[in-house]
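Example 3.2
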Amino acid sequence: MEMPRPDQAVLDRREKIAAAMRSILPASSVVTELQELQAFESDGLTAYRQPPLMAVLPETTQQVSAILKYCHDEGIKVVPRGSGTSLSGGALPLEDGILLAMGKFNRILDIDYEDRCVVVQPGVSNLGITRAVEGNNFYYAPDPSSQIICSIGGNVAENSGGVHCLKYGLTTNNLLGLEVVLIDGTVLRLGGRHLDSGGYDIMGLLTGSEGLLAVVTEVTVRILPKPETARAVLMGFPSSEQAGECVGSIIGAGIVPGGLEMMDRPAIHAAEDFVHAGYPLDVEALLIVELDGPAGEVDLLIEEVSRLAGENGATSIRASNSEEERQTFWAGRKSAFPAVGRLAPDYYCMDGTIPRKKLPEVLRRMKELSQHYGLDVANVFHAGDGNLHPLILFDASKEGDLHKAEEFGADILRLCVEMGGVLTGEHGVGVEKRDLMPEMFSKTDLEHQQRLKCAFDTQGLLNPGKVFPQLHRCAELGRMHIHKGQMPFPDIPRF
C-alpha cells in the first residue's frame, strides 16, 4: 500500500481534527481556510507570524472542556487566545496546533455591588467592566494602555497591570475567583465572591501562567468605589535622571499615588502631537502623578509632591483642576504607544522591571545602549513600580535593523536583571523573553517551574514553546529511578 505524501498526511490529519471539532461546535466556529486563518497568525508582537493548523471559537465551558479532552486524548497542541494584544508572543499559534480563540466568551454574567464584585466571561474587555459599573460610581482598577480591547482572560494569563497598579495592584490583587478547564477537560472552580479561601493558592498560581496550565472560562473580579477626588499633576524635568530621583523621593516620603508615570522627550512630543494633552515641550522628562482620596487630603498631597518635584529640579508643575483635564493628562500617556509609532516605521516595545532607586542609573545605561546600537529609544513606563517600557525605534525594511532592535531589547532586559529587577512586569515571557530566562533563573529554578507545568499538563500540549527555553520531559524532571529497564508509573505520558 502506497504511503500518502507528507503534505497529504497533514491535510488528512487536519480534516480528521476539523471533523471532530465540528462535532463539538457549529461548523462556522471551526476555521480552516488559510485566508481566514491569517486573522489569527500573530498577536501584538507583530514581528512574528504563523497561521495555526485551525482556529476554533467555542462559546460555552462545556465546549471548551470537550475540545481540550479531545486534544488531550489525541495529543494535539492547543494555544489559547484572548484579544491577541499580547506583546510577548504569548498567543502566537503553532502550525501543528489548534488555536482556541475565546472571543465569543464576551458576556458580563453578574454585577454584585453588595460584595463589590463582577462575574464575567474571559472575552470581556478590561474597560468593559468599568463601563458596566461606572454608572454606580464603581470601577475596575487594573487599566493597561490596551484596556479598550484587551480581554480580562488575557489579563489573568499575563497578570496585567496598568497606570494605576502602583496603589491598587495588578490583576492578581483584584481577582476573586476563576473557572478554568484543564487540558484533560476537567472543569475547576477556584475562589469566588468571598475574600479568602482555604487550601493552596492555585488561583494565584494560574494568574500569570501565560496559558500553560489551564484555559480560563469565567472570572470574578473585585470592583472599587470611585474615590471622592482624583487629580493629576504634570511635572517636567531637565533630565530623565532628575525625574527618576523625584520618583524615589515621592515613594520615600510615604506617598503612594494612584498612578506615577514617566515619559521622556521623544514620547512627550509624540503624545502631545497625537492627543494635544497640554504637555510641556521644553523638558527632557515628564512625570504624571495622580493623587486620590478625600479632597482635603488630595490638596495636601499635591502640595507635598510639588515641593519634592521642586527639590529635584522640576521646571514646570501643573495640577489638573477638573475631571476633564485629568482625563486629558492621562489620554496622552495612554496614547503614547500608538503616538510613538509616528516617529519611525517600526518600534519594539520592551517590558522589564527594576528597583525604583535604580531608575536614574538604568536610564543612563539605556542611553549608552542606544548609542551603541545606533537606534533611538522612547521611554514610557510605570515609574512608581519600576516597570519599564522602552520603545526601540527601527525600520524593518533596513537590513539588520530588526536584529539590532532585538539585541538592544535583550540587553535592556539583561540590565534589568543586573540591577536586581526581573525580565517582565506585565507583558509576560512568551517567546520574546523565553531564551533570556536563564539570565534570571538557575537550572534548578527552571526545573521546579516545569514541575508545576507537568502537574497540570503532562504531555506539554497547552501553549508549548512559550516561557521555557527548553521544556524537559515530565519523567526526566521527576528524577525517577529506572530499575531493570522499567520505569515506575508507566502510564505517565512522556513528551
